Amino acid sequence: MNKTELLKSLINLAWADGNIHQKEKDFIFSLANIHNIPLSEVKELLATKHNSQYPAQLNDEEKLEYLIHLLQLMKIDGKIFYSELQYCYKIAGIIGYSEEVVTELLVLTPSGDLGLDERHDLLNKAREYTGS
Question: What is the domain extent for residue 93?
Answer without folding.
Answer: 3-130
